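Lecture 7, part B: from sequences to assemblies.

Below are the input chains for today's worked example.
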Amino acid sequence: MSNENKSVWNSNITFILAMIGSAVGLGNIWRFPNVLYSNGGGSFMIPYIVSLFLLGISFVLVEYAVGYKFKTSLSKILYSVYNKLEPVAWFVLTIVFLITTYYICVVGWDLIYVVLSFTKAWGSNPDLFFSQSVLQATDSIDGITTIVPAVLASIVAIWFVTWAILRTNLNDGIGKVSKVLLPLLCIIVVIIVIFSLTLPGASIGYTQIFTPDWNALLNPNVWLAAFGQIVFSLSLGMAIALTYASYLPEGSKLTDNAIVVAFSNSGFEVFNSIGIFSILGFMAMTSGIPFNELVTEGTGLAFVVFPQVFNVMGPSANIIGPLFFLCIFFAGITSIIALLEGVCYSISEKFNFSRKKSATIVCIVGVCVSSIFATGAGSLILGVFDAFLNNFALLFAVLLECIIFGWIYDFDKLIATLNENSKIKVGKTWKTVIKFILPICILFLWIQGILSSLADEDPVSITIKAILLIVLIALPIIFTKLPAKNEDFYKEVQH
Ligand code: PFF
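Predicted structure of the full complex, as structure tokens:
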């Protein structure tokens, strides 16, 4: 992947599908419905749409403009902007890599459920089944010495699939996989939503989300939640959009593409949540469990509440169940490859490795790190990784990126890049958003994240967080200090 044989998307549609595939992931399927419900239902759409336009699309545009203009990896871009900034790139990429190691584990659990769902093998108590039979979870860190074979096998399988896709050239790997999985994902979601609307009690669910609580709009936390969801869902700051845009040919319509991608991603999560809520409405009616006790997020929703629903759904659950878990699986795979592409690209560019070599190295190290989550203490450690990396480290990285591109780099050049070919033009408002509004919002979200982390005084999580912090400081220094094998790396890029 050195500059001589630089990858280029074979069509704009491949780029758009790969971008949508990167954004649509677990966050859309199991995070959004809960965030929507707990933050005012229908009225949440107002802060959500404002955040989408004002902050989400704005930041995606920065990543598109930078990637397209520099046509190189994040590490080389930051080195070119100002050579002392290279560690920031490795810092971002280390976070992205670590997030992927546990994201893969969750997709691994899902893969197990794809298989289990054909026979509803979770039995009558899915909660107990998930924690005791699947995760074999221990309450303490001592469980780290026991391997859970099924989870390990699943993690290894997903790393293998990831490796096979990443090592293949851009259009045959990521391009083809996105072109196949994304349409399949959409078909499955349409089937699930149509089916769910026919269930008795569905209206108990979907009316909940479309019944607005206007008072919620006065609560600043609702606005922060909307913004947080956009950051997560659009995978902001993870160098994904930047990397994918660097593979675009000259003449691409950047702004128009960004809007298509952002709308598709949000459309997907809103549409999908109609299905999720209708199914939960059915459950509330059938089992008498209050609706608010059913609406949860993350693993609780996918691996506990949904199996409970499938248990009472009758024979149709034998089709809808596997489809639901397959949907999470497809969404997960396209996000995983997107997360790692930027990491591999930076390694290839600096050390002059082929795509195959960097994919192999990253995946081998990845399997080793992910195996920690295949132990009895796996879910406990995963929770700490997630809280620390998402609420704290990633937001800090997005903040740094805003400052670098908004203040250190000549921002007007990015405006010119975006306006070159796009029908939709950007100007001063965008500049103000990136320089002032976005960093302030991220700062608030970040402080909120730190405060919630501080509340956690458990010595095990403090130790894990301390280890992560050391890794996040040490790895960027090491990667920066290692001399580049590619002599072009230190040459200035035209910008
Ligand atoms: N945007 C994707 C999702 O919603 O699942 C991918 C992703 C986002 C992965 C954030 C990891 C993450 F921390």
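Note for the exam: The mean pLDDT is 94. Keep this in mind when comparing with the next example.
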